[in-house]
């Protein structure tokens, strides 16, 4: 079967190439072949039949042109933010691409669930594009497929996210589907109950994944409320959440002040106009009244299993590793390397995650702590600091290559600070980080009580106290 499929693919590829060759003039083929050999650092040569992008950027956008192609940097993109009368925030970044990404962020993640509501945000993700606003589930996906688009949803500890990616020019349809999913979902009981097996399957998959399991256990141990809630549905609540429970949760948290619409590759004024119509029925809601999340720490959890490996993580809280302190976020990013770094709107965790053969677990954990201790004592070379800065900037730069990551970054900043910092400005701040700032940050990381979680073969895994003894971080 594999051989037959490979043969079919070869024949199809050969057919496509022959058709393409028949449509291109000989000189075009020669230029196409020469263009393929051009280094990625140089502009492609002009060839016949190519038409420049006829769309013009809005006034104020700088576009550097080479031949018929454009070279754009993130700093050249046109970004705007508008707040609607009902509190909904609309942000856009005009990239002049042929595709658009629309994302709706609702600040209604798992941290806002009460004990009996645990798992509601997870269920909302699964129920995101069921029947809504007169469309059946089949019609929702049939219409978005018809225009070459896709729909997806996600839930985090702070947000429920609804997203559409599609070819430019179909934003009306996408926004209509997204807004109906947020504003007027049908939420039929039988459809909600049909999601239970899928929820259970996802919970099982996460439980079987050591890294995911340790991440959830870390949060549950470090925070006794809010951020301690899992992003997954607890097993005791599987199948017990009803459509009326979802409606009550959405009525409480799906309000204008907590909704952010981010568009990538769209015209801002058109997006605002569409949003005013699509989200007109959303009430503004009261001022943010959220429970403050408290870090407790000091917990230690060991989960033995028959695994052939040992997975372990030790984290602590640093005041304040949160999105509200941009400088601390950048410092944590430079120091991070292969460490764990969770930053939320009002709290955060920083530490290390290791995977090793069981007999080496203790030595590896102690070596990691000793290495971090040396940083806290000032043993940081200029070359190491420069390398870490470059790694962080590279991660930011590669992140904006994906519209989804770019949307997440914009939404996170808008939710917390009400504004968006351009990437060029962020990179300048990274460059300005000094060795002394890194050392001071490292000293503060384990100044509070630590949290330790280990899973797998724990035959040689030390206790947390053993790791902290004799390791000076001051």
TrEMBL record:
Entry-linked Pfam families: Peptidase_M16 (PF00675), Peptidase_M16_C (PF05193)
Keyword Transit peptide: yes
Gene Ontology molecular function: metal ion binding
Domain Peptidase M16 N-terminal as annotated: residue spans: 90-234
UniProt keyword Mitochondrion, yes or no: yes
Cleavable signal peptide: none
Localisation: Mitochondrion
UniProt keyword list: Mitochondrion, Transit peptide
GO CC term, one of those recorded: membrane
Annotated ranges, domain Peptidase M16 C-terminal: 241-288, 341-392
Record PANTHER family: CYTOCHROME B-C1 COMPLEX SUBUNIT 2, MITOCHONDRIAL (PTHR11851:SF226), METALLOPROTEASE (PTHR11851)
Name listed for the protein in its UniProt record: Cytochrome b-c1 complex subunit 2, mitochondrial
Organism: Geodia barretti (Barrett's horny sponge)
